[in-house]
């Protein structure tokens, strides 16, 4: 553990003048019943800030503001694609202009290393806005030809239309980035949004609301309601919401689908994972060890795509696992503000208790566990853990732990590796480490995962579709697919009057 000294000054400055109320219709207002939500800094366990806690009636206000802002005749509805693109660009620029402060907010609120937030989360959030700014001018429909009628008879067009009011519910692991990943494509498509950040990490979303307004995005186009799971449930079920886009647990995803079934509102879900990395014996061993360690330990293991299952070909199993254990032991835990910190704390005391209970039951089941200790110090730290010899059916080997816990197992054949990797109800990401590119492609095609990384991990890009198969969710974010997720296709058919009404077409 690194010491934390002189941390008060930056803490104070980034919270100065930070809005802490609900951002609805372009204005800041308290919750109707005055309730507050407390955000805790996971590095210290201390209270960081209190913000408004939105109740169902506040959610209704926010959805009404979003509906009004996107109505036909509204400024947003009439805006040219060029103007919309400029606004998105400006938001991206403002994120970069406020990068230090945004990174500090996510560091304090989430616990992640400041260095990582500043080099990773914040530029990634800006890049999503900059990339999505390219779409408004390119969302063309088609001039369609009918299959069953003469071309003289009709003119038919398809036209993309915004799906409407979007409820965006996000988790705490990448607070600013997740907000950007939902808001930017929705705005590119011409939708309006009510964003609900996670109760653990509400702060950067509030600053984002302010920056979006500063960029000149019309009032009500983005609304931010801070609150907990009840706030999220109220938002997902609120009449007037046309689409819910959610990232979080599979369990909550299921409840969102149930709520959406009432009126068939659209749903995109990015859920959990138990992503496998497969290391073949031909690999550059040091690179594979670095890669597999990065896959699981990046962001404290609190990533939906964490490479939490490791399958290593038997001849190199012991060496690879030993190398990863060494790398795990060298990771410096500490306060996110400390420049030397590689890994911050877990998000909360409850979450750490959950992670530790997986390790305890693995040990009780006879597995060998290295790491996975909770240091006797403030904050919710947990040292990175590597588990071998676990029963493949044990919870630690099958369930999403969402912490720095790697479960390793040996395999012999390609067939076996593919079967092991696919032996999970999840299908978010997977990785293949080998020098044999033909093998990498063969295996990559057979893996049931939305993203397959070859000799890489955690490479996400606004241009590349991202999402899960099976219990990892529905739909894709990013790329063209990510914009389409916020569009409906309308088909407009015009009969040119070249034949009498109701004439039976000649047989063809
Ligand atoms: P969660 O799914 O409960 O929370 C995510 C978001 O959904 C938060 O904004 C929360 O307020 C909201 N929410 C909670 N209950 C809701 C409901 N009934 N209706 C609508 N919104 C609701 O996740 P939580 O409790 O923070 O973490 C639990 C586990 O979920 C983690 O241990 C991890 O396994 C998984 N998870 C996966 C994430 C991912 O990126 N795929 C992110 C966060 C958690
Ligand atoms: Mg917090």
Strand segment count: 20
Bound molecules: 1,4-dihydronicotinamide adenine dinucleotide, magnesium ion
Shape: globular
Helix/strand/pairing category: alpha/beta
Uncertain segments of ≥5 residues (pLDDT<50)? 1-6
By DSSP (H or I, 4+ residues per run), the number of helices equals: 17
How would you portray this structure in words?
The chain has 508 residues and is of the alpha/beta class. It has helices spanning 8-15, 56-70, 75-78, 81-97, 99-110, 114-132, 175-188, 203-215, 229-237, 250-260, 285-297, 314-330, 349-364, 395-398, 414-422, 437-446, 479-484, and strands at 22-24, 27-29, 36-41, 46-52, 143-144, 154-162, 165-169, 192-196, 222-224, 243-247, 266-270, 276-279, 309-313, 368-370, 385-388, 405-411, 429-433, 451-454, 473-474, 487-495. Helix 1 (8-15) packs across helix 5 (99-110), helix 2 crosses helix 9 (229-237) and helix 5 packs across helix 6 (114-132). The longest helix is centred in the first third of the chain and has 19 residues, at 114-132. The N and C termini lie far apart (79 Å).
Please outline the helices and strands:
Blueprint: H1 8-15, E1 22-24, E2 27-29, E3 36-41, E4 46-52, H2 56-70, H3 75-78, H4 81-97, H5 99-110, H6 114-132, E5 143-144, E6 154-162, E7 165-169, H7 175-188, E8 192-196, H8 203-215, E9 222-224, H9 229-237, E10 243-247, H10 250-260, E11 266-270, E12 276-279, H11 285-297, E13 309-313, H12 314-330, H13 349-364, E14 368-370, E15 385-388, H14 395-398, E16 405-411, H15 414-422, E17 429-433, H16 437-446, E18 451-454, E19 473-474, H17 479-484, E20 487-495
Parallel strand pairs: 7-8, 7-10, 8-9, 10-11, 12-13, 12-17, 13-16, 15-16, 17-18
Antiparallel strand pairs: 1-2, 3-4, 5-6, 6-20, 11-19, 14-15
Helix pairs in contact: 1-5, 2-9, 4-6, 4-8, 5-6, 6-7, 11-12
Bound molecules: 1,4-dihydronicotinamide adenine dinucleotide and magnesium ion.
């Amino acid at each position: 553990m690194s010491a934390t000294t002189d941390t008060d000054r930056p803490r104070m400055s980034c919270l100065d003048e930070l809005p802490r109320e609900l951002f609805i219709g372009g204005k800041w207002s308290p919750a109707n019943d005055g309730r507050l939500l407390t955000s805790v800094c996971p590095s210290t366990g201390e209270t960081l800030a209190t913000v408004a806690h939105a109740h169902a009636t506040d959610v209704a206000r926010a959805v009404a503001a979003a509906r009004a802002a996107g109505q036909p005749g509204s400024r947003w509805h009439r805006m040219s694609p060029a103007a919309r693109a400029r606004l998105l660009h400006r938001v991206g620029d403002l994120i970069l202009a406020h990068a230090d402060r945004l990174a500090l907010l996510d560091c304090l609120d989430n616990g992640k290393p400041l260095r990582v937030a500043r080099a990773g989360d914040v530029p990634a959030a800006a890049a999503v806005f900059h990339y999505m700014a390219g779409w408004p001018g390119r969302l063309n429909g088609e001039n369609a030809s009918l299959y069953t009628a003469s071309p003289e008879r009709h003119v038919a067009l398809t036209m993309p239309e915004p799906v409407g009011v979007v409820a965006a519910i996000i988790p705490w692991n990448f607070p600013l980035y997740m907000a950007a990943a939902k808001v930017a494509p929705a705005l590119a498509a011409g939708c309006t949004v009510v964003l609900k950040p996670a109760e653990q990490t509400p702060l950067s979303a509030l600053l984002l609301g302010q920056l979006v307004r500063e960029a000149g995005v019309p009032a009500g186009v983005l609304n931010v309601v801070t609150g907990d799971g009840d706030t999220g449930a109220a938002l997902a079920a609120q009449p007037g919401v046309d689409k819910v886009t959610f990232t979080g647990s599979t369990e909550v995803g299921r409840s969102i689908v149930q709520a959406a079934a009432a009126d068939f509102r659209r749903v995109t879900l990015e859920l959990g994972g138990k992503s496998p990395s497969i290391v073949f014996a031909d690999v550059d061993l040091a690179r594979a060890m670095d890669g597999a360690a990065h896959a699981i330990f990046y962001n404290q293991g609190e990533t939906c795509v964490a490479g939490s299952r490791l399958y290593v070909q038997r001849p190199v199993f012991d060496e690879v696992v030993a190398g990863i254990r060494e790398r795990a032991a060298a990771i410096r835990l500490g306060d996110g503000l400390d420049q030397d910190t590689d890994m911050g704390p877990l998000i909360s005391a409850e979450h750490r208790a959950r992670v530790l209970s997986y390790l305890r039951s693995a040990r009780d089941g006879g597995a060998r566990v290295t790491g996975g200790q909770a240091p006797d110090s403030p904050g919710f730290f947990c040292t990175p853990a590597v588990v071998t010899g676990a029963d493949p059916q044990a919870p630690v080997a099958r369930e999403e732990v969402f912490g720095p816990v790697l479960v390793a197992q040996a395999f012999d054949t390609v067939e076996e590796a593919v079967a092991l990797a696919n032996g999970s109800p999840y299908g978010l990401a997977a990785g293949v480490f080998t020098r044999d590119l033909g093998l990498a492609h063969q295996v990559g095609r057979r893996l049931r995962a939305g993203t397959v990384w070859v000799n890489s991990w955690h490479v996400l890009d606004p241009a590349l579709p991202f999402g899960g198969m099976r219990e990892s969710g529905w739909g894709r974010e990013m790329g063209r697919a990510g914009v389409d997720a916020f569009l409906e296709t309308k088909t407009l058919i015009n009969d040119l009057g070249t034949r009498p009404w109701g004439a039976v077409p000649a047989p063809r």
